[in-house]
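Below is a typical protein record.
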Amino acid sequence: MLEDLRVPVEAPVVLDRGVATEENLQWLRQQGRTYLVVSRQRERSFPADGAFTKVATASGPEVQLLKEERQDGEVVLYCRSEQREEKERAMHQLSAERLIKELQKWHDGLGSPGKTKTLEGVHQRIVRLKQRYSRAAQHYRIQVLPDDQKPHNAKAVTWEYQSQPGSKTTHPGVCCLRSNLAHWDEQQRWQTCVTLTELEAVFRSLKSELGLRPIYHQITKRAKGHLFLTVLAYRLVSTIRTRLCEAKINILNLSLYMYVCG
């Protein structure tokens, strides 16, 4: 993609977690390109000791940044956002409450006629429940106890909270950035990564209001034309946002004003 777009080698490449694979990063290094990506490591961590750098965000709350230089030339930036921490805590709490409510419902149903009581049936429902509430289910040890009188049936469903270290529950609001841009400071890395969030917000609008997805065209050139128009729309949004920033017009306040005025 970079070659087809003729992106200059000196232009930094910013990638989201979904495409920041080791294979892609290795290709970027082989091409002599610089990058800033969201780390794909599953376990979260935020060193308790270190010289933190605090950066104010556009919405107000500060973000804690801690840089770590590695021997392979990469720089790792640990980021902790209080605003994101509150959001992830609330999401986990809601998911846990719904999970426990469903488990309690199934446990109570084992003593009611007409409810699923076989071990196989209960286990299948618990698997589906774990998939639905995966955010909270990983922290609970769920067991199905067989009935002494009827071994093929279940007599109880029990659950026990067991926190998993390095997860969103133990480290809410934490993310990790990787980069080989040695001359960038912590604030520049963070602000550049934030542009990914803005891009995602724009493309969500393109997919809904502008109808980027799904594509119903059957002919290749029509599908390409459809995609071209959506990319063109994004460039228009980007230009408008840049002009507003140059004029020192707060985009958030402008959006609120447009919403209130209809």
Summary: The chain has seven helices and eight strands. Residues 254-262 have pLDDT under 50 and may be disordered. The helical segments are 22-30, 82-109, 119-132, 134-137, 186-208, 220-246, 251-261.
